[in-house]
Design brief:
two-stranded antiparallel ribbon, 12 strands, Rossmann fold, 21% strand, 339 residues
């Protein structure tokens, strides 16, 4: 692989040029006396580690995870269950400017992965693989020293975590080790809209809450799944407000310079839209559309690289599978599957 000379114009990597065979084990770093590396001095109460009670009462955002002072060691038996994600490493020359998607072939297609500190939109119909994509991105980071925060909007986090385990990814040790944090914001925002106490949610409250929780686990990765219900009340009058809300939120998160973010967007079946409000795609540094297509009489999962800012990547479609316990596996370009 060629070393990056200009991060603003990174080279495009030819697919298949990097298939890492490294099998080294990633272990969390402990500070003296076995404290997690993000522990503050003095006695840490469980609720202080998980969430600020004053802010929690104000915003009523449910945090799923029970943290204690014990630092959990991610042993080799646990890591072996994530062998594919553990063994793959983004080449060293790309790590200063890029963060891995957690999908090896996709990193190569994008010329190094996602740009650090930027926002990406993963769009698709129901069942297209958006949540698996997002979780793979977060779990990969957690296994490689980049903690992550998952903001669940449509599904309670306890059900989400159970579903992840059924898929073959037991993330409980990563939660206990404070490598992953799941926030359930669905209940809070649903109650606000149902009670109609106020028609607008102040963006600053949401932004402050997201950034605060990210800081508490020293997060480097963030997922908001999906983005639309977080900022939209359902009225036509809310559309302009939602666009400004989204713009302000993306700018604030990117201003931290530390969070690489995935927003997911639901696309109605048969629609050519990429997002609910038509502004997400302009704010995002990259757009990946997931869907289903009939090819030679077969229904295949298709990934469409729609946009990749600062990467000389041609828009293209790729066939992929979703493999339990492994995640998204790209099989090759769409052209190869057509006779």
């Amino acid at each position: 692989m060629k070393k990056i000379e200009n991060p603003e114009k990174p080279p495009c990597i030819e697919p298949g040029s990097n298939q890492s065979k490294s099998s080294s084990i990633v272990k969390p770093i402990l500070t003296e006396k076995g404290k997690p590396n993000n522990a503050e001095s003095g006695t840490l109460r469980t609720e202080e580690l998980a969430y600020n009670p004053a802010l929690k009462e104000k915003e009523n955002i449910k945090t799923v995870a029970s943290y204690s002072q014990q630092q959990y060691q991610l042993n080799e038996e646990f890591l072996s269950s994530f062998s594919t994600l553990v063994s793959y490493k983004l080449p060293a020359e790309f790590r200063d400017y890029y963060t891995s998607t957690g999908i090896p072939y996709l990193d190569e297609i994008l010329g190094g992965g996602f740009l650090r500190g930027k926002t990406y939109l993963i769009a698709g119909e129901t069942g297209s693989g958006k949540t698996i994509f997002s979780l793979q991105f977060l779990i990969y980071g957690a296994l490689h020293g980049e903690p992550g925060v998952y903001i669940a909007i449509d599904e309670p986090t306890d059900q989400l975590i159970k579903g992840i385990k059924q898929f073959g990814w037991d993330v409980t040790p990563l939660i206990k080790a404070r490598k992953l944090l799941f926030l359930d914001m669905r209940t809070h925002f649903s109650k606000i809209y149902l009670r109609d106490e106020r028609k607008k949610i102040e963006p600053k409250y949401v932004i402050e809450s997201i950034i605060k929780n990210a800081k508490e686990v020293r997060a480097r990765r963030l997922v908001i799944d999906p983005i639309a219900p977080l900022i939209y009340g359902g009225s036509k009058d809310d559309v302009l407000y939602a666009r400004e809300f989204l713009r302000e939120m993306v700018f604030a998160i990117e201003k931290t310079g530390k969070l690489t973010t995935i927003m997911t967007s639901e696309i109605p079946t048969g629609s050519k839209q990429l997002s609910r409000f038509g502004v997400e795609e302009f704010l995002a540094s990259g757009i990946i559309v997931l869907g289903l297509e009939e090819i030679e009489g077969r229904i295949e999962r298709v990934m469409f690289i729609r946009k990749a800012r600062w990467s000389p990547v041609r828009p293209g479609k790729f066939i992929f599978d979703i493999v339990p316990g492994t995640g998204i596996v790209i099989k090759g370009s769409l052209e190869k599957f057509k006779s």
